[in-house]
Specification:
The complex is a heterodimer of chains A (166) and B (498). With 166 residues, chain A is mainly beta. Chain A has one helix and 16 strands. In chain A, 38% of the residues are buried. Mean pLDDT of chain B is 91; it is low at 472-498. The chains are: A mainly beta (166), B alpha+beta (498). At the A-B interface, strand 1, strand 2, strand 3, strand 4 and strand 5 of A face helix 8, strand 16, helix 13, helix 16 and strand 23 of B.
């Protein structure tokens, strides 16, 4: 079975065969014999060419977050066909807008922008109080505020849409 | 003898353990968010005290006293945070016939108002950082007071502690928004939005002295803790001894701390905080009239159980050790494992700990308030556990901490573990070149992934997906995933970083 693994701008093609903890993985022209065991939910023990690794694999918005050693990788794994269809249709190209969702539950203590405002990367968008800290949230990319869906004082849940930026 | 622990999380667990070892019965209190918390399970008795918001539960003196009465408790240990430095609560305990395991209300009051504490230190000729000696009036023009001190300056909560309600202001344009956030944080954390101003000392070290005082006039110090590794004034790594404090400096700082404690009529365990500049001059910052989060490093190096001493002192016993008995052996380091995403704007990361494997082994201590399967609520602070190690010297302690952090596995929430591993491996940390600016200084160069384990990570991720799609089984299936999104996740916003 073939997969496309996307790490930032890089895409790796990975082929896997095998079952029951014993796999053959082809990655970057090399073939690896991998003994992989799920030892607790999300904690894998991997033996690769005699080297023992422990990797934590968790999901974040459909991507894998992998902690191994003191490193953390965010990897989008897609079955090869699905990846090809997605990239051919151009869905990964220009984004019409960016929808900003609350990353965690909290209370909006300040909204710094209004619809129509132009924002630059680094501009304060709003402040959310969560777990006893005021977290000032800033734009990571420039754009125009299309919608503001929250008010100061409002309590939000993780995943709630807060702002839409064109 | 029965002790009610008016707190939650790892510190409630720590106090319950000390009581258990002393043969004292324990009473836990819990909010609606904490029915399944570890402290509830470890205590002999447990009482609900109200809804999840701390203001309606852990900060409610009335509800805690009601629980104490229902449980027929004899004493109350406040832990740190919440009501620990609330003089009115200490008085209310006394009025209800309960021993408050902490200092007398007058000492809490004298030190709890940081401006009054600064006046006490000044009167004893202990050096202080320049700044206002009174809190800023609510309607006062902060700009006027700020101009008198000069920029950059620090805004600090007059009732503050633990770094909450503190903000660095570099120029006048930042003052208004910083003041608003500091006031909000102070009001939420301490129920008092009073703020004072202090000159900003560039790149200082934060070094504090542990003191113990009994009801019989004995005041001793247990040496220092270096707490310079901080992020937004929240300590992340602490150690004892400090790499810059020698016996002579320890003795000078300890003596100053004891003088302040004596002048305040202090009894029980307390901590006197100092800023130390590049020339090793120290300046009084504030006194924390409670047990500190980082107390274990002192315990590991002195062999003195601070919570046990607190219980004995509250029972009216004299100190069991004299200053001459106190000896410091080896080095201890503490790392705070918080449910925060250090590579995702440090946002809090509440959620269920689907897997948890704490570090163990020689000279490793895990002061934790959580367990596998526990759901970290999103309403309290983010501290999950404190990992503490001891070594024969500082280098050995650092090596041991690196080993322990590599063993510590938390799955389900993001934690500070990866950044802690990078901190203790950093050449400046190993060399003891520390300052409160350390983390901000090293963060830009820190990469989440240096590439050493890239192939392993890809293999692990692909195998997880391969298995999820049903082409093989490993041992059991991973948690079901959300539907695939049509594009990689994007982070268009992140928390402000200086």
């Amino acid at each position: 079975m073939k997969f496309a693994a996307t790490l930032g701008d890089a895409v790796e093609t990975v082929e896997v065969t095998g079952e029951r903890g014993r796999y053959r993985v082809t990655l970057g022209g090399e073939v690896w014999e991998v003994d992989a065991r799920l030892t607790a939910q999300g904690i894998y023990s991997l033996l690769i060419a005699g080297v023992s690794h422990v990797a934590d694999v968790t999901d974040r918005d459909g991507a894998c977050v992998v902690d191994v050693g003191d490193e953390t990788y965010v990897i989008l794994v897609e079955e090869q066909t699905r990846y090809v269809l997605r990239t051919r249709s151009g869905a990964a190209g220009g984004r019409a807008h960016q929808t900003l969702v609350a990353p965690l539950p909290g209370k909006i203590t300040h909204v710094a922008v209004r619809p129509g405002d132009t924002v630059a990367a680094g501009d304060t968008l709003l402040v959310i109080e969560a777990m006893k800290m005021e977290n000032e949230l800033r734009a990571g990319a420039p754009g125009t505020v299309a919608e503001v869906r929250v008010r100061a004082g409002q309590t939000v849940n993780a995943g709630d849409v807060l702002l839409v930026i064109d | 003898m029965k002790v009610l622990v008016a707190n939650r999380g790892e510190i409630a667990v720590r106090v319950i353990r000390a009581c258990r070892e002393q043969g004292l019965a324990t009473v836990a209190v819990f909010s609606e968010a904490d029915r399944e918390a570890l402290h509830v399970m470890l205590a002999d008795e447990a009482y609900a005290i109200g809804p999840a918001p701390a203001a309606e539960s852990y900060l409610s003196s009335e509800r805690i006293l009601t629980a104490a009465k229902a449980a027929r408790a004899d004493a109350v240990h406040p832990g740190y945070g919440f009501l620990a430095e609330n003089a009115a609560f200490a008085e209310a305990c006394a009025a209800a016939g309960l021993a408050f395991i902490g200092p007398p209300p007058a000492a809490i009051r004298a030190m709890g108002d940081k401006t009054s504490a600064r006046r006490i230190a000044r009167d004893l000729s202990v050096p202080t950082v320049a700044g206002t000696l009174e809190p800023l009036a609510p309607d006062a023009d902060a700009r006027v007071a700020a101009r008198g001190i000069g920029y950059p300056l620090m805004l600090k909560a007059a009732r503050g502690g633990g770094g909450k309600g503190m903000r660095l202001v570099r120029q006048e344009g930042e003052l208004e928004s910083a003041l608003r956030m500091a006031r909000n944080e102070a009001a939420a954390a301490f129920g008092d939005s009073a703020i004072y101003l202090e000159r900003y000392v560039a790149e200082p070290r934060h070094i504090e002295i542990q003191v113990l005082a009994d009801d019989h006039g004995h005041v001793i110090h247990l040496g220092e803790r270096e707490c310079s590794i901080q992020r937004r004034h929240q300590k992340l790594v602490e150690e004892c001894p400090s790499p810059v404090v020698d016996a002579a400096m320890r003795s000078r700082m300890g003596e100053a701390a004891c003088r302040i404690a004596r002048a305040a009529g202090y009894v029980n365990a307390g901590t006197v905080e100092f800023l130390v500049d590049a020339e090793q001059n120290f300046y009084f910052l504030e006194m924390n009239t409670r047990l500190q989060v980082e107390h274990p490093v002192t315990e590991m190096v002195t062999g003195i159980d601070l919570v046990r001493e607190q219980l004995r002192i509250a029972a009216g016993e004299p100190l069991h050790v004299t200053q001459a008995d106190v000896a410091w052996r080896g080095a201890a380091i503490e790392c705070r494992i918080n449910a925060e995403d250090p590579f995702g704007g440090w946002l809090p990361s509440p959620g269920t700990l689907t897997a948890l494997r704490a570090a163990t082994g020689p000279w490793v201590r895990d002061d934790s308030g959580v367990y596998e399967g526990y759901t970290v609520p999103g309403v309290y602070d983010t501290l999950l556990a404190k990992l503490i190690v001891w070594g024969a010297d500082r280098a050995a302690a650092i090596d041991r901490m690196a080993r322990a952090l590599a063993e510590y596995k938390v799955v389900g929430v993001r934690t500070t573990i990866p950044i802690l591993a990078q901190i203790v491996a950093h050449p400046d940390f190993r060399a003891g070149r520390l300052s409160t600016g350390f983390l901000d200084r090293i963060l830009p160069a820190i990469r989440t992934a240096a590439g050493r384990f890239r192939s392993v990570a890809v293999i692990a991720a692909v195998l997880a997906e391969y298995e999820r799609l049903g082409h093989a089984t490993i041992a059991e299936s991973v948690a079901p995933r959300d539907a695939w999104r049509s594009s990689p996740p994007l982070t268009v916003w992140r928390e402000r970083t200086r």
